[in-house]
Amino acid sequence: MIRYLSAAGLACAFGLSALAMPAPAEASACSATVEANDAMQFSTRALSVPASCKEFQVTLKHTGQLPVAAMGHNIVVGKTADITGINADGMAAGAANNYVKPGDARVIAASSLVGGGQTTSFKIPVNRLRAGEDYTFVCTFPGHAAIMRGKLSLAP
Q: Which helix (H) or strand (E) segment is 71 a member of?
């Protein structure tokens, strides 16, 4: 009985000391989830990336049911001024390249292509973003970029 009480006391002490310790920085501050569906919609039109993050992880979750060949989605990040060219070159690169031109220096970050029920993640290197610059995220699957887009900003 004494051993049991001692073990319980130690467990409580460790549990309480863990509660008293400061919590680590929230991982969610440096990550976001964006959902996409079969109606060619992103769940958000804006992403704010804290400047304090080294990398910002974006998870793309396709909540639809259609396969990748029919209704694939990706997220490609670039300067707003470059998005039209990124999209055109991405479509020319084709599905085998996730509709992203290989080696395109204008692309800051890009996800792979996903179909209904699939999820993927990618990281945005925050050191490639500049305060005051205009950034856009877009789906480069053919025909999607006009509708599936949003603003990305660097937050102080």
A: helix 68-71
Q: Kindly report, residue by residue over 75-118, the tens digit of the pLDDT.
A: 999 999 999 999 999 999 999 999 999 999 999 999 999 999 99
Residue 9 domain-assigned (yes or no): no
Which domain range does residue 145 map to? Answer: 26-155
φ, ψ (nearest 5 deg) of residue 61: -115, 115
Alpha carbon distance 1, 151 (integer Å) = 62
SS3 55: strand
Nearest to 108 by CA among 86, 91, 92, 141: 86
* DSSP string computed for 8-48: HHHHHHHHHHHHHSPPPPPGGGGEEEEEE-TTS-BS-SEEE
DSSP-derived 3-state class of residue 111: coil
Within a domain: 64: yes
pTM tops 0.85: no
- Give how many domains the chain has, as a whole number: 1
